[in-house]
Amino acid sequence: MAYSQEKLVEEKVFKDPVHRYVHVRDRVIWDLIGTKEFQRLRRIKQLGTTYLTFHGAEHSRFNHSLGVYEIIRRIIDDVFDGRPEWNSEQRLLSLCAALLHDLGHGPFSHSFEKVFDLDHEAFTQKIILGNTEVNRVLTKVSKDFPKMVAEVIAKTSPNKLVISLISSQIDADRMDYLQRDAYFTGVSYGHFDMERILRVMRPKEDQVVIKQSGMHAVEDYIMSRYQMYWQVYFHPVTRSAEVILTKILHRAKHLYQKGYQFKHEPIHFYSVFAENITLYDYLKLDEAVILYYFQMWEEEEDLILRDLCVRFMDRNLFKYVEFDPAKEYKKLSELSTLFAKAGLDPEYYLVVDSSSDLPYDFYRPGEEEERLPIQLLMKNGEVRELSRESQIVDAISGKRRTDHKLYFPADLLKDDSSKKNIKKQIRNLLDL
Amino acid sequence: MLKDHAKIMQAFAAAGEIVGRKKLQKMIYIAKKVDFPFQERFQFHFYGPYSEELTLRVEELCNMGFLNEVKEKKGGYMQYRYSLTDEGMEFLNMNLVELPALEDCLTDMNSQNARFLELVSTVLFFDDLEVEEVKEKIFTLKSKQKYTEDEIKQAYEYIEALKGKVVPV
User: Fold this and answer.
1) A42, A109, A168, A212: least CB-packed within 10 angstroms?
2) What's B3-166's CATH class?
3) A3-233: what CATH class?
4) Are the beta carbons of A329 and B91 separated by less than 8 Å?
5) What is the C-alpha end-to-end distance of chain A, expressed in Å?
6) Chain A contact set for B64 (CB, 8 A)
7) B78/A332 touch (CB, cutoff 8 Å), yes or no
8) What does pTM read for this prediction?
9) Is the ipTM of this complex over 0.95?
10) Domain range A236-355+404-430, CATH class
11) CA separation for the pair A211, A200 (Å, rounded)
């Protein structure tokens, strides 16, 4: 029997708090889960620094990847199977792309990628196409199979239907992370009737569409998403931790480039600091490694690196005030000067952080945004864009919400043992 | 501090008025690919490389009053014109970013049409592939645009010319 068709003698199941069980019958999927590159995802948290705000948010990208796989498996095996618009030969491709879609995420990826100008999606491609265990499993299916999986994940595959299952405004990725993140953070947002949505999904040539009767379940999903973004993902305390994490990485890189002699040599970071990181080096990095260095750097001579690491490890985070860049950029410049005079390098201790979300948008021909809209399948067989039918969705379509905050170490500003007058001026400007 | 905003504004200062969101997206992507330090991340979308972060940045700059956006009806769709406002110039003067050769490159790109820039950016997106594979990608993913072999050749030549402009003297 061809490897692609091979089934396990007995179905394997993973107990899962969100989907109850994740079912694996395909040998290829079982083998991929066992690869070291996939197992690495156990050591990367799904929500980065969110655990410092919501203590339950310790779940990993491994959990989420299995969840996305399970949702796609249910859509294909329980809903699409046997429908004329669905080509069953795409089943394994869809399952593999779902399982591997986040494979290239690094530790605390948001900050890490920003500081070192890396892109987890590029690493996903490299892991799938490079000299890795994952590549060897996929190549056993066929020589071209790794490329096909990589193209679906990169959205450069001609197979738009499979892409839309994994990446669109209503996809398995979002459906899993909203529910999983809600479960682990313990918030009451993020819940919607996924079973209902799955049952009304239908394959079409270029994308998945939703039967009109499922519109209210989709509305609920969009609202859940909106609430999760503002209540969980953009929580200001989480953002504060992220700001400090980013600044630690910036400082360490800066020190390395200046020839600073670290007491504890950051060997895991050398290639990333030198901007020539290899896939091998990248795969060695996980959050346990990063946190180990943060703990070691608490003992460094450099006062900024030391202070930032102590703050992160002990959760002594920056405070914040609302900030309007349009009206207050001159004030920001003034603050920056005062921070420097107070002996607080503004590059590390005065940070503007912005959060922004567009809950739903539709495609307007020619010039506009390029998001794939959610399409409803009407009773007469026509397809209509969601916001044309749903007043609730119409009300939020294309409406972006943005929020800016200014972060700083309030404890240092309130310490009058030095530069008392300057700190007082700063506190007045910040309304502290 | 607001450095990434300043870099995008520097692009507008260098290029002058930019007409069309698609064109703007492709210009910044191409500039990034030829080594200008723009931070916005791009993914492959309908029209080629597209950055949600850039869309957001431009929207913010408009809300801040630093960029002027003029919306005009053009046949069946809306077209957007962008230019720096006086407040934007003032902000930029306070946050100058040194980007040598940017003006030359962006002025050149601004004189090209969006269709050609879409092709150039797509070629750059697949720059790790062999030329024949890139052509196959373009003919498959961009079949509606009906690009010719000759246009693809011109895109490669254009990329080389741009790279020549940014090489330090």
Assistant:
1) A42
2) mainly alpha
3) mainly alpha
4) yes
5) 71
6) 325-326
7) no
8) 0.91
9) no
10) mainly alpha
11) 5
